[in-house]
Amino acid sequence: MKNEWPLWEIFIRGQHGMSHRHVGSLHAPDAEMAIKNARDVYTRRNEGVSIWVVEARHIAATAPGDKGPLFEPSESKVYRHPTFFDIPEEVGHM
Amino acid sequence: MADNQQLFQFLLRMGDNTLILGHRVSEWCGHSPILEEDIALANTALDLIGQTQMWLELAGEVQGEGKSADDLAFLRDVWDFRNVLLTEVPNGDFGRTMMRQFLFDAWHSIMLGRLLKSSDSRIAEIAAKASKEVAYHLERSGDTVVGLGDGTEESHARMQEALDYLWPYVGEMFASDDIDAAMVQAGIAPDPAGLRDEYDALVGRFLTEATLTIPDNNWAHKGGRTGAMHTEHLGHLLTQMQWLQRAYPGASW
Predict the structure, then answer these.
(1) Residue B155 contacts residue B95 (beta carbons within 8 Å)
(2) Which CATH number does the domain housing residue A35 bear?
(3) CA distance B250 to B245
(4) Is position A84 within any domain?
(5) Which helix (H) or strand (E) holds A24?
(6) pTM of the model
(7) What 3-state class would DSSP assign to A19?
(8) Burial of B70 (0-12, 13-18, 19+ CB in 10 A)
(9) Which residues on chain A are in Cβ contact (under 8 Å) with B143?
């Protein structure tokens, strides 16, 4: 629809030390209003201490059709997991 | 020391402003132009009703007749309300609602800023909680007024119309009377008239950015905060707001 405001993706940091997490999207005319709308839509129940907004069109994404070549090859590479090292006792829990 | 009756009146003025405006804003619930604004307006309404609860609870305490905030909100009639007329005028279109919100928020934020230093610690505490909410209300309504005022030809025209319609209701927020004088003397609250310059500067800044023209005339409708005369609209609002308590006295859930 040509009169529709652009779509913004909303990222909220739940508490200090945690990373911002994608929580959803909303419409807003500009970045400032997107932040305000995010505050009103996504933090009404004390969910966050920081908000990031990114206009959805600026996010480059993988194509669902490329799933095979992109992600399947790593399924069979167990040796990439650091589970084959002998950890000395004295190191303890890592 | 101001007498309790004067303090009671002052508290009603604060609490009735937030009650009536909160109810007006809540009328948008489910009707806003877009979902995001709908939630934002509902949040604002809830903030205002929450503040009402604090003001009217304290008012009931000061009055000393054992009345709760609910009693004062739902069992008084039009002539007992002390809100400024600005808060009771109908919503109009979304633009007028946001303009009314902005004109009130600007006064509210300045007033609460002063009340933080009230000699009455109960009032200072309410102001401390409310002023954070209101700082956000002002940011939101101010930016929306700028966005719509400096927007399309139609949005600009509607915002100018809203400002022309609402401006005569602004002056009442700065009218001082004996009750205000008593509050000033007791160090409880500022003289409303003394807030006008700061208000004009604040509002002027936003409205200039919004490319809107403040009407030349500072003539003001009055009667709400003294209770002398409300608009015809308040009675209609109360029939909506109070009907359940009136029809089923004492009903609770």
Answers:
(1) yes
(2) 3.10.20.520
(3) 6
(4) yes
(5) strand A21-27
(6) 0.90
(7) coil
(8) middle
(9) 32-33, 36
pLDDT, tens only, B90-119? 999 999 999 999 999 999 999 999 999 999
Question: Which band of pLDDT confidence, cut at 50, 70 and 90, is reported for residue A12?
Answer: very high
Task: Could you please state the CATH topology (level 3) that the domain comprising B4-213+221-246 is classified under.
Answer: Ferritin (1.20.1260)
Q: Is the CB of A40 less than 8 angstroms away from the CB of B40?
A: yes
**Chain A nearest CA to B160, separation (Å):** 21
Q: Which sequence spans correspond to the domains of chain B?
A: 4-213+221-246
Please answer yes or no on whether A28 and B140 come within 8 Å at the CB atom: no
pLDDT (tens digit per residue) in B157-205: 999 999 999 999 999 999 999 999 999 999 999 999 999 999 999 999 9
Q: Are B11 and B56 in contact (CB under 8 A)?
A: yes
**Scanning every residue of chain A, which has its alpha carbon at the shortest distance from the alpha carbon of B144?**
A33
Q: For position B192, what pLDDT does the model report?
A: 97
Range of the domain at A74: 7-91
Number of domains in chain A: 1
Residue A34 lies in a domain: yes
ipTM entry: 0.79
* In-domain check, residue A47: yes
Confidence of residue A68 (pLDDT cuts 50, 70, 90): confident
Distance CA A38, CA B40 (A): 10
d(CA A7, CA B167): 35
**Cβ pair B119, B186 in contact under 8 A:** yes
